[in-house]
Amino acid sequence: MINALRGMKDLLSTQIEKYDYFIKNASDIALNFGFEHIETPILEEMALFKRSVGESSDIVGKEMYEFIDKGNNNICLRPEGTAGVVRSFIQNKYDRIAGVKRFFYHGAMFRYERPQKGRLREFHQFGVECFGESNPYEDINIILLLKEILDFFKIEYTLKINSLGCEKCLPPFKENLVKFLGDIEDGLCDDCKRRIRTNPIRVFDCKNKSCQELLLDAPRLGVSLCDECSKSFNFIKNFLLEANIKYEVDSNLVRGLDYYTKTAFEFVSTEIGAQNAVAGGGRYDKLVKFLDGRDTPGIGFAIGIERILNLINLPKTEKSGYYFGAMDENAISLVYKLGVKKRKQERVEIAYNPKSLKAHLKTADKKGMRYCAVIGENELKNHQVWIKDLVKKEEFLKNIEEF
Among 47, 62, 250, 280, whose Cα sits 20 to 30 Å from the Cα of 14? Predict the structure, then answer.
């Protein structure tokens, strides 16, 4: 027997219903905020993620599904959504058009990592990206959009925020941090030792307990922000306070990707176990320019859909549609033709084999149909259809022409 690959999972029955329900309503909310739908390819050039996500990240360093295709191109399955949207933004020359552009997307992402609850090798994200707006009101707008989506699905969370600084205040902070890390390097894990030389602030993202203990006295970026970054971050915090939106400033929050600058945020939930971040994002004001586009500020977020599916409750749906069945072999053809015609107007399920009335009623009820329409020997002689309304518990006969 051939099974699904490790870390890959089928979405069946209730899970796919929840997935579709989430996508529809999250998309509607994004549309209300002025975002438009975009779809990017699952396959991209490997260079896109090395240059954007960063070679210091675990994603590029350890988790990429990377291979050489038949055209000798180094390509990969996308591990996240932002880089592809930025690539599309530049390729379609939106960076050369004045104004703000807002996109939302959803789809499968791939990372080769150890599968665990809430973290699979194939997973799905819903995300948004905004280009061309540097005003901190847009940071708030993005956070409010994400909050509204989670609130719609009644998911409990804690909002954590931080500022990662900019090209002015980040370099001197990194210099001080590297000096501190040099003194404790012998006690750090191999990943953190590598990060010292690639992107030192990523050490704060390490989950190794011994590393976190050594970092307790490390310099923190929050007290090293330049005037512009400090003013912007304070504006965001004050707005959230005035709007009565609770948050925590987490100085360890640096996100897992190298392209973030200034505002970073995560929504975490205690309802999903150890992997408790359900969504996160932040600013990446230099990413468009870094990928050869015109200097354009950007900000966005992504939601890990699998992490919240089990927290979503589907609304109760009323029974609807028709179930068609025959109790006589000779009635099957007529039942099928009636069902096909009715399907142009409503949801229809057709049974291909004759069964007892009791069996047809049971199946119709199980499939959530409101009406059970049956033709037996007597109905066939009288050119009628027997119908039962499974909600009102009423039954009646109709002539086939009238039906």
Answer: 280
